Amino acid sequence: MAIEAREIYVTALKNTHALEMQALQIMERQVERLKNYPEMEEALRRHIEETHGQRARLEEALQALGDSPSAIKEGFLGFVGNMMALGHTPAQDEILKNTYANHAFENFEIAAYQSLITIGDAAGQGTSLTGFRQSLQEEEAMAQRVRTLIEPTTRRYVELTLAGEQADR
Ligand SMILES: [Fe+2]
What separation in Å is there between the alpha carbon of 125 and the centre of ligand 1? Predict the structure, then answer.
């Protein structure tokens, strides 16, 4: 039997859901550890709230199709997992590695939502797509926020390090 567009869409919904669950884990872990970078902490807290909404949108779309999120597929998150592992090893430059990884992660999510919306469109699932367009906008805004924070964060890291203060997180 031929694969239907609906199946491709369901798989994309599950993958994106797994991605958001990973996003929540990563951001919550960082927020707990951050001490000396209040702007990054604020950006992460805001985006954690948004991400809960994004997760709910995906769950609603799956439920509407009579499906539910499944366990994280190994392989799909391999790349992201490796990238995020950068920030998991305690290092003097932990904040820098997390900043690079957050930038990469948000851009990964942008690609995932653009793709999900395209697949949903091909599957004739117009109703859920308004919500996913909003999720996409939120990812773009967060990617931009992280990008804007690269320079001030790095400057603060250098200043704290030179002053002999805690700079890693
Ligand atoms: Fe995100």
Answer: 23
- d(CA 117, ligand 1 centre) in Å: 16
Q: What's the pLDDT band for 146 if we cut at 50, 70, 90?
A: very high
* Domain spans in the chain, listed from the N-terminal domain onward: 5-68+75-162
5-68+75-162 maps to which CATH number? 1.20.1260.10
Residue 132 predicted with pLDDT over 90: yes
In contact, 102 and 43? CB cutoff 8 Å: no
- Residue pair 1/60 in contact (Cβ under 8 Å)? The answer is no
Separation of CA 164 and ligand 1 centre (Å): 33
Over the stretch 38-79, which tens digit does the pLDDT of each residue have? 999 999 999 999 999 999 999 999 999 999 887 665 555 666
CA 46–ligand 1 middle distance (angstroms): 10
- And the tokens for 45? 């807290």
Average predicted confidence (pLDDT) for the chain: 91
